[in-house]
Design goal:
By secondary structure, the protein is α/β, with parallel strands linked by helices. Strand 7, helix 9 and strand 8 form a beta-alpha-beta unit. The radius of gyration is 21 Å and the shape is globular. It starts with about 30 loop residues before the first helix and ends in a 14-residue tail after the last helix.
Length: about 525
């Protein structure tokens, strides 16, 4: 631990899964059917049943903790479980309801929190040796809001090291594994959050998304993940607190958002966490979106663009076909006008890399490495030690403007843009990305060409399950809207969900009774 800025309150502060050999554990006993029933309930239903005293929040918590105990030895979604805190919160909520006191819209809903989001008194390691044992002295804004709404935190979820990657491994904790095939990656960096939702260890979870880190694992794990327009969900201290190099970067591209099994649950969480806060100077005023009704209504008559590859990206043939069939649902079943079209720009991975470096605290992270050369992994160390020129940074800023302008001009002609979420199904753990796609070598970031563009522009985007490959691996559909078009994105996702439901589709490892 290299910093002592916070008050080190050690409530639930001992990380779990400190197993660097990442061995797959033996299969666990079959889950209890009663707990299975409670773990399969969506968040909206949980909140309603708890408020009306049809289900105890204590029983809900015990069910998800039982499922964690059964699945965690194989999947490693949680790096710091918080069972004692969850039980205490559930008992307090149960007493409030019994006494007739009002409770919030998420009352009794278990929530998993990504380990890049600050939690007061609870370890927030971010998968980095530099922050092993670090306990923040304040909650993130979204954590405060969840608590006020009655949500019950069941643990911190595993991440790629400080979010610098689209996978689920880091130097500190055991690798998070895909519940559909545990030898494969879950995606990331919100790895554990996606796995927790996909397996019913939590009906909803929070992730963060600087280049696709909500949408990538949502796609690979078969759940829904939403990145709202930049500024809809305020961030602090994440990205804003200069005391914590590595946590304090990505300010103009980072988002926090929900993962869930239904679009309605995403909207429910957004109704709690969205809205301005003076601690985030980029946060947007509230009022133009009614999150609880945003997903209502049809999409008939909307004009949609679909592209399987943005005109340049290598894309797995099965992913291409599944996304194409999903686009046809919008045309043939939902009454949309769908055209093959894409914005006219080329591969922008180098632009994204430069923006990430520009917004990282390179001096602070280099100072950490001077004190301990092993503070970061070799991969992150290489990123931190790379020498950049001012011209490279200014070129990236200008190129970002070009990308944003191309996108808004394109979106003048279309209501939505549909793409695959990522270019490939899940690949083996331990890799930063697949070395090849359909026989074509790709660069390290070549498998995520669709997601980071929406971070550069700040547009809303959602990944929803579109189907599965012949090997049974989930594939995501990426639905992208115009700037501030959050409501239309949720409405389209909900319409697609009604036409091609997915919430019943559980990984075999769960073994729903």
């Amino acid at each position: 631990m290299y910093f002592n800025y916070g008050r080190f309150v050690h409530l639930q502060s001992t990380p779990a899964n400190l197993d660097r050999n990442n061995a797959v554990s033996e299969p666990q006993p079959k889950l209890a059917s009663a707990g299975d029933d409670l773990c399969s309930i969506d968040a909206r239903t949980v909140a309603r049943l708890v408020r009306t005293r049809q289900v105890s929040p204590v029983d809900i918590v015990e069910a998800v903790l039982t499922r964690q105990a059964a699945l965690e030895p194989r999947l490693h979604a949680f790096c710091t479980p918080t069972p004692d805190l969850a039980r205490t919160t559930a008992r307090r909520l149960e007493a409030d309801i019994a006494a007739g006191r009002s409770v919030g819209p998420l009352a009794g809903v278990p929530v998993a929190i990504k380990d890049l989001i600050a939690t007061k008194g609870i370890c927030t390691v971010g998968g980095a040796r530099a922050y092993a044992g670090f306990v923040p002295d304040e909650d993130d804004i979204v954590v405060e809001r969840l608590a006020r709404a009655g949500a019950i935190m069941v643990g911190k979820t595993n991440v790629a090291e400080l979010g610098y990657g689209g996978v689920g491994h880091n130097p500190v904790f055991a690798t998070t594994r895909n519940p559909w095939s545990p030898e494969l990656t879950s995606g990331g960096s919100s790895a554990g959050s996606a796995v927790a939702v996909a397996t019913g260890m939590s009906p909803v979870a929070l992730g963060s998304d600087g280049g696709g880190s909500i949408r990538i694992p949502a796609a690979l794990c078969g759940v829904a993940g939403f990145k709202a327009s930049m500024g809809r969900v305020p961030l602090y201290p994440g990205c804003r607190d200069e005391r914590y190099p590595g946590f304090s970067g990505w300010e103009s591209i980072e988002h926090i958002g929900p993962l869930a099994r239904t679009v309605a649950d995403l909207a429910l969480v957004m109704s709690v966490i969205a809205g301005p806060d003076r601690r985030d100077r980029h946060s947007l005023p509230a009022g133009d979106v009614d999150w609880l009704t945003a997903q209502d209504g049809g999409v008939r008559g909307l004009r949609l663009a679909f592209t399987a590859d943005l005109g340049y990206a290598p894309v797995d043939s099965e992913v291409r076909d599944i996304a194409g069939r999903a686009a046809l649902i919008f045309e043939h079943e939902l009454g949309c006008i769908v055209e093959n079209a894409h914005p006219n720009f080329t591969d922008s991975a180098a632009v994204f890399d430069a923006i990430v470096a520009l917004e990282s605290d390179l001096s602070g992270m280099r100072a950490i490495l001077q004190r301990d050369p092993r503070a970061f992994s070799a991969e992150l160390t290489a990123v931190v030690e790379r020498v950049w020129t001012a011209t490279e940074f200014t070129d990236a800023i200008v190129a970002r403007k070009r990308i944003a302008n191309a996108m808004w001009r394109f979106m003048k002609r279309y209501d939505l843009l549909l793409t695959p979420t990522v270019a490939t199904p899940a690949f083996p753990i331990g890799l930063a990305g697949p070395p090849m796609i359909d026989g074509r070598p790709i660069a390290a970031s070549g498998w995520t060409p669709f997601t980071y563009i929406m971070n550069l522009t700040g547009q809303p985007a959602i990944s929803v399950p579109a189907g599965r490959t012949l090997n049974g691996l989930p594939v995501g559909l990426h639905i992208c809207g115009p700037h501030l078009g959050d409501a239309i994105v949720l409405r389209a996702a909900a319409a697609f969900e009604n036409a091609a439901p997915w919430a019943h589709d559980w990984p075999p490892i769960v073994r729903i009774a």
